[in-house]
Every structure is written in C-alpha cells, then in structure tokens.
Design goal:
The chain has 83 residues and is mainly alpha-helical. Helix content is 89%, strand content 0%. It has 2 domains: 1-46; 50-83. It contains 3 helices and no strands. It is elongated and about 70 Å long.
C-alpha cells in the first residue's frame, strides 16, 4: 500500500470518529437541555403558584434586576449557614 493511500485511510477513519463524536456531543447537549428543563419545572412547581398567576410572577421577575436579587439572596443564605 502506498503512503498516500494509508494517509487517506487514516483521514477516513478520523472523519468517521469525528462524526461519531459529533453525534455523541449532540446527544449530550440534548440531555443537558432536558435536565435543565426538568430543573426549571421543578423550581417553578416549588413556588406553589397557580398556573394562571405564573405569568405575572415571571413578568415581575423579568422587570426586576434579577442578578442583584440573586447575589443578595446568596449572601443571605451564606450568612444563615454561618450562624
């Protein structure tokens, strides 16, 4: 077998492996999205708000500075854990 034929075979093998890895990556990304969605659903259900009121809760959250609120809550939780 000529050197160039060997290289071509190696390229083909590598391309097949890359395709397999791409499929595996896409599957893992779907699993991650599904897990995140389940976490979101669980968090929403834990606030025990009526479904018809949920849009108002989400709108209120949207209108607030959510990052600042989260940071404040984290500090409070850490403070409570230390006490």
């Amino acid at each position: 077998m000529m050197k160039s034929e060997k290289i071509v075979k190696n390229i083909e093998k590598l391309q097949e492996k890359m395709l397999e890895l791409q499929i595996q990556l896409e599957d893992l990304e779907k699993q991650k999205t599904q897990a995140e969605n389940e976490e979101i659903i669980q968090a929403v259900r834990s606030i025990k708000v009526q479904p018809e009121d949920l849009k108002y809760v989400l709108k209120a959250i949207q209108n607030m500075n959510v990052k600042a609120i989260i940071e404040k809550m984290k500090k409070e939780v850490i403070k409570d854990e230390k006490e």
